[in-house]
Design the sequence.
């Protein structure tokens, strides 16, 4: 029988993972603080007292569990106050990868001793034995010099568009189109999972707010857009940018705070931007992208090109004045705008029913005389259909639409938030509706795509992201004197020079 040990398994995502294991017939031990024993113990789960701030406690709990096949860390990333990359990997086998089933099973843990020693020139770069588990989990980051230092802008992907930038027939998607959509879903998921791993290892500074679980919204919405359309994003914007056709290499370089990033290390995760993609930026301020998209829609209408502007935001943002002011103006001026609320049921750490009285955000469209439509945000084809209808209306001059895509983030508000405020049963139910699993099953059973083809796509994504991480790792750090570049526009008599 497979044996699993889940740290932090008494509540939140840890409890959901433990119960998922138990439902699959796995022998599960959960490790957590002693005062949480009553909440953690059950007929299906064993409890082991564990305090991740106490290294002796960690060693004792995992050692008493015996031979463990799967180790999942849902409790924290430090031991005795030290970062993971300063702790012996033989003592603490960190496992944070959540694959498509919601957890990881990479085989048996190594039994030999191995110590990861960070290089002196770069924190978080491991030089360790081949038996070192974390070195196998992380991408193999090569340090060879890039053959071409110049940034390649030819890698943008708009697989959902024809050569003329027109939408492909949405009623009868081809197999290859479905595979393209599946690839984007997997690309976003694995990009963010790897980013989380790389951040824990010290490669990526700052915070990450992953959209793991919400990929179908980004893919479905962006698949309905053309190359001349524009979007604004949120603090959870990696998926939107990748679905728009961004280069993962330059995105990782930006997360690494390197010169070859999209914004030369000035944007980071929260403020990445590329206007050539029509991506008008992620944004760390709640709801701040909504008026930006409204202004973009006004400009697009004045140009008369038939392009539209799309704004992504969460349920919490619909309480902001910027949301109501923007929808009012968009309706008043009949703007080609589509407002997409990614309702993952939580505004940061607060459930939707605790911060607003309406059950469906879409009803707020009634106050501004525009359509309000609800979509299953875990169904990429339904999201694509609903968005295509809204985009068609906007292009025809029929005004804006508010779309509420109901979805769920699998992880906390940010990497490190263990989600103790979310009921384990709720998390488990939504993990079972993973959009990638659902879509993969759909294209195999209903559209004749083979599982082998999907596996090949996943393998190709892994290769691409490994190369992307290597590109970012080899990219140079910006020089201190570059800090003030790109901050001020050159002007002449008060007007910006173009």
Sequence:
């Amino acid at each position: 029988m497979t044996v699993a040990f889940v740290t932090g398994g008494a509540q939140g995502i840890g409890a959901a993972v433990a119960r998922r294991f138990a439902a699959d017939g796995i022998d599960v031990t959960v490790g957590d603080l002693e005062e949480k024993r009553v909440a953690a113990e059950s007929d299906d789960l064993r409890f082991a007292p564990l305090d991740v701030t106490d290294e002796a406690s960690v060693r004792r709990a995992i050692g008493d569990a015996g031979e463990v096949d799967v180790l999942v860390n849902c409790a924290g990333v430090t031991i005795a106050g030290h970062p993971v990359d300063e702790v012996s990997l033989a003592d603490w086998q960190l496992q944070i990868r959540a694959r498509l089933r919601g957890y990881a099973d990479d085989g048996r843990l190594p039994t030999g001793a191995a110590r990861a020693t960070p290089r002196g020139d770069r924190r978080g770069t491991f030089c360790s034995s081949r038996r070192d588990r974390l070195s196998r989990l992380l991408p193999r980051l090569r340090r060879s010099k890039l053959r071409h230092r110049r940034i390649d802008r030819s890698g943008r992907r708009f697989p959902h568009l024809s050569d003329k930038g027109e939408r492909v027939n949405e009623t009868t998607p081809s197999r290859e189109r479905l595979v393209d959509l599946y690839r984007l879903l997997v690309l976003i998921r694995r990009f963010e999972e790897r980013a989380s791993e790389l951040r824990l290892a010290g490669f990526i500074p700052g915070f990450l707010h992953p959209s793991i679980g919400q990929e179908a919204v980004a893919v479905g919405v962006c698949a309905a857009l053309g190359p001349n359309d524009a979007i604004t994003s949120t603090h959870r914007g990696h998926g939107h940018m990748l679905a728009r056709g961004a280069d993962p290499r330059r995105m990782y370089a930006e997360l690494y705070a390197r010169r070859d990033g999209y914004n030369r290390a000035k944007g980071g995760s929260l403020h990445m931007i590329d206007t050539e993609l029509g991506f008008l930026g992620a944004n760390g301020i709640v709801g701040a992208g909504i008026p930006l998209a409204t202004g973009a829609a006004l400009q697009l209408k004045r140009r008369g090109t038939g392009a539209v502007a799309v704004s992504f935001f969460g349920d919490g943002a619909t309480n902001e004045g910027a949301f109501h002011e923007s929808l009012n103006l968009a309706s008043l001026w009949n703007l080609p705008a589509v407002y997409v609320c990614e309702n993952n049921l939580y505004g940061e750490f607060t459930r939707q029913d605790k911060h607003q009285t309406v059950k469906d955000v879409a009803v707020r469209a009634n106050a501004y005389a525009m359509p309000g439509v609800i979509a299953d945000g875990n169904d990429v084809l339904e999201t694509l259909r609903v968005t295509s209808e809204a985009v068609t209306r906007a292009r025809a001059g029929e005004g804006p639409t508010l779309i509420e895509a109901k979805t769920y983030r699998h992880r906390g508000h940010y990497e490190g938030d263990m989600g103790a405020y979310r009921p384990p049963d709720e998390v488990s139910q939504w993990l079972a509706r993973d959009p990638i699993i659902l879509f993969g099953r759909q294209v195999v059973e209903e559209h004749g795509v083979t599982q082998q083809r999907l596996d090949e796509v996943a393998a190709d994504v892994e290769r691409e992201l490994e190369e992307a991480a290597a590109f970012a790792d080899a990219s140079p750090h910006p020089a201190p004197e570059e800090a003030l570049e790109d901050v001020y526009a050159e002007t002449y008599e008060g007007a910006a020079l173009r």
About this structure: The two ends are 67 Å apart (CA to CA). The domain at 175-417+450-480 is CATH 3.40.50.970 (Rossmann fold).
